[in-house]
Amino acid sequence: MTDVEALLDALWRDYTATTPQAARVHALLAARGEQIVNDHVALRTFGVPGLGLAALAAPFERLGWTPRGDYRFDDKHLVARYWAHADAQLPKVFISELVIEELPAAAQATIRDLVAQLPAGFGARADLPYAGRAWRVDHATYRALLDVSEYAAWVAAFGFRVNHFTVDVNRLTTVASLVELDDLLRAAGFALNESGGAIKGSPRDLLEQSSTRAEEIDVTFADTTARIPSCYYEFARRYALPDGSLFEGFVPASADKIFESTDVRR
Ligand code: NI
Fold first, then answer.
1. How remote is the CA of residue 242 from the centroid of ligand 1, in Å?
2. Which of 55, 93, 137, 256 is deepest in the core (most CB within 10 A)?
3. Would you place residue 105 in the very low, low, confident or very high pLDDT band (cuts 50, 70, 90)?
4. Is pLDDT above 60 for 266?
């Protein structure tokens, strides 16, 4: 196994351990004879020194991924960047970070308390993208963060790990459109993220995306165990630019809605 394969394999194993539906999506498509290629893998982090998107990107950059585009999601207090590899078979890497300074003071203090628990040098670990949650957090703290930012609460509960993998729909051979794939998933019992409609973006945007709703799993907090939304699976269909090459970027308005796939249902 190459270093690139080992990193992607570690990410996939960590992801499927917290996202049982991912294996079921794979089984559904494999039963049709599909060989799944991932369009991108997405990770989340807190925008604090030494742990932000640059730190999370370092293990990927060492293996040949290079930065391509930057995005900003004002309402969710996020900035994001994506990386691509010269080997087009490899997934793009999409990393977002929470702009802590834009949160209320109490939430900022909570996040700084979590981060302060990490041992020195944690952000420089080669396995940071799948290092998991290395701080103690109780359920009330998670709930308090939820009221401020679903994203902050998710990172507090899950730490450093893949938030979602994304099937490259262009490379499926038995499914002609994202509508068709979504229908297939619904028929198999998967709940999709319907925020803003199941399909985000359009051929005019050069990118259509849909995603499952994150399923709930038992998470162990410092004081109790609670069922909360974990990770989801995403599906992307890309369209060609005027020069005939596929659009490789992201559409902020669509990504903004996709982030809500992990929202807690209230
Ligand atoms: Ni995505």
1. 24
2. 93
3. very high
4. no
Q: Which runs of E-coded beta strand occur in the chain?
A: 38-46, 66-73, 78-84, 92-98, 162-168, 207-211, 216-220, 225-229, 232-238
CA of 258 to the centre of ligand 1 (A): 7
Residue scoring higher pLDDT (18 or 107): 107
With respect to CATH, is domain 3-262 assigned 3.90.1150.10? no
224 Cα to the center of ligand 1, angstroms: 31
Helix axes 139-148, 105-116, angle to 10 degrees: 140
Single-letter code of the amino acid located at 83: W
Question: How far does residue 164's CA lie from ligand 1's centre (Å)?
Answer: 7
The predicted model scores a pTM of 0.95
Polymer length in residues for the chain = 266
Domain positions in the chain are 3-262
Cβ within 8 Å of residue 166, ≥6 positions away? 38, 39, 40, 41, 42, 91, 209, 233, 234, 235, 236
Q: Which of 138, 149, 144 is nearest to 225 (CA)?
A: 138
Convert the pLDDT of each residue in 179-223 to its tens digit.
999 999 999 999 999 988 899 999 999 999 999 999 899 999 999
CA dihedral 232, 174, 238, 177 (to 10 degrees): -90
Mean pLDDT in residue range 54-81: 96
Angstrom distance (rounded) from CA 146 to CA 142? 6
In whole angstroms, what separates CA 155 from the centre of its chain? 11
* DSSP class of 222: S
